[in-house]
Amino acid sequence: MSRGVLALVSALVALVAGLWLGGHPKDLPGPVRDVFVQEDRALRAELIDSIEDNYYKPVHEDRLDDASLKGIVESLGDPYSHYLTPKEAHQFSEEVSGHFEGVGMNVEQDKRGLKVLRVFDGSPAEAAHIRRGDFILGVNGRSIAGVNSDVATSRIKGPAGTTVELRVYTPGDDGDRTVKVKRERIEVPVARGRLVERDGHRIGVAELIGFSDGAHALLSRQIKRLRGRGAEAIVLDLRGNGGGLLLEAVAVSSLFIEDGEIVSVRGRHRPGRTHDAEGDAILPKDVPMVTLVDGGSASASEIVTGALRDRGRATVVGTYTFGKGLVQEVEHLSNGGVLDLTVANYYLPDGETISSKGIKPQVRAVDNPDTDRDEALPVALDTLVGKLR
What is the distance between the alpha carbons of residues 12 and 44, in angstroms, rounded to a whole number? Predict the structure, then answer.
């Protein structure tokens, strides 16, 4: 082969390799990869500078930076992965702390905005006649259709004493309405318990609102109080519970399961890890249980529901759960923002992962949000009475 031909072949190989590696910078050697990354950052800075210098209206650089970071994460097409600005990150931290400043309601994401799952007693939302089953369509004149639920709720929250304007739609009404609600500091009633008489039996109903830090201890207190009052069986009500901390889900499950697997976590870049019961369960195995769920029961709620079902500890009553079996990892960024990224799947003790369809109830029970009655709870109570006979 002549030197000229050899040089031409070498040049073509180099060109092809360069084009391929340019599109796959992660496969480049470290120093070379750094050059590509620097060029990418320079291009991003060039784009932002051009917008700031030439756009016909003033633009804040921070807003452009936030939009750029959000766009990168949104390109994954994952509804559970997102970037939170420093302000939104502060609101996110309140979600798992058990208290926040807002209007006092639990919501879930809906294509129209936010669906109201629960309104806390004595809250500003209750005073504004917002009720379960309503939809929040807009906040302060801005539509929240398609907006991530964490971002949408952060717009509703704010300092106590300030006012937020909500556009609310109640199914069956001719149109929506706009209400002004004064924010307050809300202490979330994480766990509540009550004793119910059913066919001569005393049944404890323990309601868990979320899986914030310390939720298992609050639920344990309610269970022990109910047992002390003579509860022969327990309904664990997880309806409208959108989840929270993984370790709290394990701790809650451990209140009823003495030993063995609760849930395992496996991901592409995460070594498999199994979370077992922590021991010292507070409820004897011969005390019947029902887990009451609905479409608002998600994530940590589904872990507990699946663990109690698979370990033969409780019967699942209600409707299909939400269907979120994904593990989120929260990384705090240098600018004060947060990357909330899906990194793995949850697997229940029997090996099933929680699919987008959710967990199927073993006994179906549907509550009608348009009535003041609770049509699902009596089914749960009757299921336990059948076990007590």
Answer: 30
| 266's tokens | 């496996």
Helix, strand, coil share (%) of the chain residues, nearest 5? 35, 30, 40
Range of the domain at 19: 12-49
> Which amino acid makes up residue 70?
K
Query: What separation in angstroms does the CA of 320 have from each of 214, 291, 365?
Result: 27, 12, 10
Query: Does residue 255 belong to any structural domain of this protein?
Result: yes
Average pLDDT, the chain: 86
Same domain, 340 and 239: yes
196-to-207, 284, 322, 368 alpha-carbon distances in Å: 13, 20, 27, 21
pLDDT range class, residue 126, cuts 50, 70, 90: very high
Candidates 211, 364, 219, 193; CA nearest to 298 is 211
Domains: count for the chain: 3
Write out the two tokens for 224.
Answer: 């022990």
φ/ψ of 230, rounded to 5, equals 100, 15
The distance of Cα 321 from the centroid of its chain, to the nearest Å, equals 13
Whole-number Å distance between alpha carbons of 15 and 236? 64
Determine the average pLDDT of the residues in 76-92.
80
Question: 98-114 pLDDT, tens per residue?
Answer: 556 889 998 888 889 99
Catalytic annotation, residues: 299, 310, 324
In a domain, 353, yes or no: yes
Q: Which amino acid is at 82?
A: H
Give the span between the Cα atoms of 246 and 359, in whole angstroms: 18
How is residue 280 written in tokens?
A: 């010292």
- As a whole number of angstroms, the distance between CA 315 and CA 383 comes to 8
Tell me if 55 is assigned to some domain.
Answer: no
- Same domain? For 338 and 199 the reply is yes
Determine the average pLDDT of the residues in 241-250: 91
Asked if 373 and 336 count as a contact pair (C-beta separation under 8 A), the reply is no
Element spanning 185, H or E? strand 184-187
